[in-house]
């Protein structure tokens, strides 16, 4: 019988790639979707016609219990979150509720539906993946960051993710659940939300190249990140869920680039000189910045055999080409079908 997966956050970047990957692996895939007539659900269904949907919201405990009862999943991937860091200062309480407490509600739904009690093996029947984040490292205490590096989150988003991360470990220890956290570093793609810096830059370059804009406004160009390709990272999520033991893993490339280097590469990919177009804007700086993040993915390589396949330059070129195509076709990048 096909294994059955339930994915929260299926309308997001990672949800789409994970669903594709699991369908390729022969899974029956269900997506938890929220809201009435959510246009992102229609977009997701255009791309992923084989996915079945169940209604639910990470803010609503009863809806999660009903979703787990209905789907009877073998694996639950909790990708749903408020994921844009600046929004987490504007709506800190909502971020805590969705990105933090949402993890508790999903774990409780699994616990209740599998009839687990403390120390009972029954809760091991449904496997749980939590989308943890390198933002938990925040102001880093060492570089590169490993599974053992301490946390010093710098935003309400990072704090909420740290809560979800510790809770996942706690349910593993308290109830014997197969519950894992992937500590994923920044991963991007042509399906990335348009507010994140890589996509903002690739879209900005495409607009300038096609004569639709004359400048690109950005915040801190000196921040450094370890950027990889989302299509590679969802494979790591699945490998963690199929591992013999539930453990947490750092997933990244081990290479850091600055926002300035990202901008240079993206403009160069379109044959443009970035210095003629990029304007920095103090209003886009954050109340507390994460200056640098760089993964040490040795454990994932050794235990899961996971390696990133797409390089930084290939990723940037892929995103710029995709946005040039999208805008040339006259599509609205926030509304368009995923490439
Ligand atoms: P994304 O594109 O922003 O997608 C977020 C998803 O969360 C959307 O499907 C959204 O659904 C859903 N969601 C928001 N509020 C919800 C609620 N109340 N109940 C249920 N679902 C809700 O994020 P992503 O880049 O794919 O990232 C996936 C996960 O990995 C997130 O948890 C993120 O924090 C984490 N993460 C991402 C990265 C990265 O670099 N991409 C790195 C580390 C960790 P709607 O369509 O209904 O809004
Ligand atoms: O910012 C700087 C900004 O918003 C990256 C999420 O997926 O990855 C993501 O979080 C850097 C920051 O991603 C602009 O200050 C400069 O230093 O693309 P971002 P993020 O905050 O790193 C982690 C791992 C997650 O878990 C999150 O969910 O770029 N930057 N100028 C800018 N950033 C944005 N967005 N816009 C600018 O204009």
UniProtKB/TrEMBL annotation:
Transmembrane segments: none annotated. One of its GO terms (biological process) is 'de novo' GDP-L-fucose biosynthetic process. CDD domains: GDP_MD_SDR_e. The keyword NADP applies. Coiled coil: none annotated. Pfam families: GDP_Man_Dehyd. Keywords: Lyase, NADP. It is an enzyme of class 4 (lyase). The keyword Lyase applies. Its cofactor is NADP(+). It comes from the Bacteria. It catalyses: GDP-alpha-D-mannose = GDP-4-dehydro-alpha-D-rhamnose + H2O. GO terms for molecular function: GDP-mannose 4,6-dehydratase activity; NADP+ binding. Its EC number is 4.2.1.47. SUPFAM superfamilies: NAD(P)-binding Rossmann-fold domains (SSF51735). Catalyzes the conversion of GDP-D-mannose to GDP-4-dehydro-6-deoxy-D-mannose. PANTHER family: GDP-MANNOSE 4,6 DEHYDRATASE, GDP-MANNOSE 4,6-DEHYDRATASE. Belongs to the NAD(P)-dependent epimerase/dehydratase family. GDP-mannose 4,6-dehydratase subfamily. This is GDP-mannose 4,6-dehydratase. It comes from Nonomuraea phyllanthi.
